Fold these 4 entries.
Entry 1:
Amino acid sequence: MHERVDNPSFFESRGDILIARSVPIASYKLGLYGFSDVIEFHAVKNNGIILPERSGLWKPIPIEYKRGKPKVKEFDEVQLCAQAICIEEMLGCEIYYGYFFYGQTRHRHKVLLNETLRDIVKNLSCQMHKLFNEKRIPEPDRKLQNCRNCSLFDICVPKLKRKKFKIDLYINQFIEE
């Protein structure tokens, strides 16, 4: 699903829309960086940004691709909002909404990037930097089933943090794999 999305050299134009893929983004204010799957730049008459080597004004809209379907909690929305904050800081603009394209539903879902989401991103960023400065890894949330999808899974090893888990069983299981 990410074949074209992960190719930064795959750029296309569809009428009044420019599509950039795998765009590096960063916010120095929040200390975040990463890649946006897709940023669509829509031609607008006002309240847009100037793009190099393009005439007119453009409005950036972040689009994130996910394999599954929309989540019950706002994890995906927070990620999209963090991307929008990075893009806003980089381009000096305001982004009011973005989209998710979920592979399972094959539809775009519009996400309004409101102050509540922005506050969550800012608070999580502060928590992340506090943990980093303390050289700590957050405890896994045992109620969540998403540990395997976490980028820190191999560092955190949530199985080892269970009280009843025996280290020798873990090592044997690891060796068998």
Note: The beta strands are 12-14, 17-27, 32-44, 57-66, 97-102, 107-112.
Entry 2:
Amino acid sequence: MQSSNTRLETEIIFDWIAAGSSVLDLGCGDGDLLYRLAKEKGCRVQGIEIEEEAIYRCVEKGLSVLHDDIDSGLPEYGDNSFDYVVLNQSFQQVKRPEAVLREALRVGRETIVSFPNFAYCSARFQMFFLGRTPVTPSLPHEWHDTPNLHFLSISDFTGFCSRRRIKVEQAAFAAGGRKVWLFPNLLASTGIFRISNGARGV
């Protein structure tokens, strides 16, 4: 069952994607977002997923999903093949996030990225006062079984984009199933960004 924060995050991404557009979801999981986009907005959708069980569930929904590792790049897709490329809670799980984002920006006219904010106040509290790797609603796994390979903050990501001349078209922040409007690097557990490659080359 999805948490309230995950539901809000999905709604934000769903709202950002225009009806009738083409969407590639990198690390699409069970395909719930793609299914909604196809059924409710008439989008042309494609997913890439590495977990076989998740792929089976996508196929049951009638979705087109490739079994692949997004760390290996997207050589089968040309430049601007899709209107949107989505990295929904998968960006921090890849081995080479910069290379993956470069490919996403090449293949998509816009890229939507969401990730847990490691600088969230609850995570800071646990690190500072308990001296432990934090466990929060957006970082629910213990250190030994987390799928996350990179722990970044909202400020880390905005700085990363600025240095590479990646344009932030839109941003939203969430915690506890509600949008966060002030001090997101401290008060938001999740960041969601819609970005484009203003420099045409990361």
Note: Residues 4-196 form a domain with the Rossmann fold fold (CATH 3.40.50.150).
Entry 3:
Amino acid sequence: MNRYIVWLWMCSAMLLHSEVTHLWADEAFLEKNITIIDIRTPTEWEDKGVVYGSHLLTFFEENGEFNVSDFKVKLENIVEKEQPFALLCRVGKRSRIVADFLSKTFHYHVINLKGGIMHLIYKGYHTKSYKKTPKKLKLD
């Protein structure tokens, strides 16, 4: 019985310190003063464009790999721990996974933009074009 009470207390404490909100990606949301982190890949940014003012921070690489510690360091340079922010991907699947992970593991207040960039485009949003800058050649 005591283990059950401790388990319930731990679960409720986790829920109090973490939060994920799931909202449809639309222009009304974009007009709010909330930081948007676009976790798509550079190839996706080139293909569909980006949301003006969003921060481009890939979570999953093209091959599906990810580096949580690297992502977290870069994220901390963009948002404060207590500051709510939104995640955007192509259709909302990856952003949902990452939002849940960041919320449960690091207790961030995350907004998952359902439907992703594709929903925004479908609703008539015009993205800003993205051109990948070539890496500088290292000359010996």
Note: The first strand starts at residue 19 and ends at 24.
Entry 4:
Amino acid sequence: MSNAVFPANIKGLTWTVTKSFEFATISQKSPNQYEQTISQTQNPIWHWVLIYDYLYDGFVTPNDLMPYAPYTDFRTLLGFMLARQGMFDSFLYTDPTDHFVGPGETLGVPNPQAQLQLVNDGAGNYYSPIQRNMGGLFLEDITDLNGALALYQNGVLVTSGYTLMGPGLALPGYSFQGLYVKWSVIPAAPVTASFNFYFRVKCELDTQDYEEFMAGLWTIGGSGSKNGSGQLKLMTRRPPTA
């Protein structure tokens, strides 16, 4: 498990980007078609399918000079993937359209979309799991932050009185797989937060095609692809809990 960050400034990523979720459910049917289901996971496994229409490699263009100079975009991406050894190593990925929670407050008013749960262990200790709120209907545990965490109690920023811990918290009646805050005293509700986050992912496969369709230009499943299987596929890989 590494903290290497996927090189997001590689040029050539094209539409469409496919993102899908997956759960692990055991389903068993009786002869009368009564179905019994058992959910095996609280948090979804996310899948991304990325298509790179072009990747520069030795092509005479200013693109080679930034931001990975002296290496080209192609060699930077290829080297990053080789360093992960296929499916072996996890890394951090920023979803361009889904990577933050907040703001925690607006003009001192708590933002309900950024509200964190407040739970206790029955022994006087209070915790707030770091989660993102999906439409007010689903809370997903966050395992990796990108930068600082800002916490608010009833719309007021707090900078002390808590410890960031995890991933993994098990309490009577509760279980969380992500990071969490342990409060030194009972916080003033509601607790809200602002933060950026990464998805911890891995490659879905141990193999990946890169097709050179023109001198100095490569593609991963793009419009210039003819022979390669294409598409860079990533999937969530949650870290072990503490």
Note: The longest helix spans residues 73-84.
